[in-house]
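Homework help board

Subject: predicted structure for assignment chain

Our instructor gave us this sequence and asked us to write out the predicted structure in token form, then describe one feature. I got the tokens but I'm not sure how to describe them. Can anyone check?
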Amino acid sequence: MRNKIISSLAGLFLILIAFQASAQFSLSGEFRPRTELSHGYKSLAGPDQDASLYTAQRTRLNARYQSDNVITFLVLQDVRAWGSQAQLTGNEDFATSIHQAWAEVFFTPELSLKAGRQELVYDDHRIFGNVGWAHQARSHDLAILKYQEEISLHLGIAHHENTNVTNNIFDGNDAYKDLQFVWFNKAWDDASLSLLVLNNGVPYFSNDEQKVNYSQTMGGHTKFKIGKFNVAANAYYQTGKTGSGDDLNAYNLLIEATCPRGITWGYERLSGTAYDDDQNKSFTPLYGTNHKFNGFMDYFYVGNHANNVGLNDIYAKYSYSKDKLSLNAHLHYFSAATKINADASNYLGTELDLGAGWKISDEAKISCGLSFMFAGDSMELLKGGDQSSTNYWSYLMLSVTPNFIK
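My token output:
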């Protein structure tokens, strides 16, 4: 009997070794509560407006499987504000959602097809990003054909319809009905170049018939070194039609340089539509991680500022890290990219963002931040509220990412 048990255990051990040699499985989690205190977040506070204090949390379970020819990834996610659910819960109103659920099949080591619900992250997140700062984040339902060797070439395609398969109607929550993109990337020792062409189709109804307005975004991102400086640049152009059918003629430019001491100087311009323009010239960064770019108080392009006067952002950033401590400070000077009206100044405001982080362990980190918006008179014309109010935002966040099975 003992020999049979030993033989069975040995056989099971050999099976596990063989499975481990041909496939890998990992199971991890994320627990991320964040408390925010704000007075004038996203828009200027009114003269009698009280500050708000709230806590929201993201909880995730991530399962990843990989063999020689297949990779699969599943992310279950729950996002809620503390206090939004009763202590004694009968039926769950805040059901767990699927943030990612995709499979990638490799026809050859260089050629693969990735299909399902997935995050899109390309280059510096300006056009495609996962919006990881937001608890809900962003993911897409689409398929990507990938070729990766000395160059990377991705072809992405999405088409959305309602569950009624007898028509060709889509009136769902996504911003697009049809989307196609081609992304090219080539990397060298001290430089890289990416090119992107994106065709974005937004549905609309005309005489009870659904049609699609298409806009095209074309451009690229590059990184290179000049002496001890790391330089990055973006250049994008948008044309076609807006979702409402207006002709579109817009652009985005960015240039920044980082020195060895952690100081970054940069300038970004997103074109805008003047009060007397007869054409839409407002650039939209579409599906990017916009919180990353134009100030952490999210006054611009985070669910707002679309089809508006655009933005000039002159900024300086400083980052420092040693051992488990990290510090950062950002300063932004904002102005409109075109005329707000005949008399208004283009100056919008200056924002100061301060942050700190402490790495408790490989699986746990605490971070905090404090931001102030020193707004000009013209910010009131765009956002309302009172520019003389004390406009600030702060947060305290705990992030725990355990590996259950590794």
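Reply (TA_rk): Your tokens look well-formed. For the description, you could write something like this. Residues 2-22 form the longest helix (21 residues). That's the kind of observation they're looking for.
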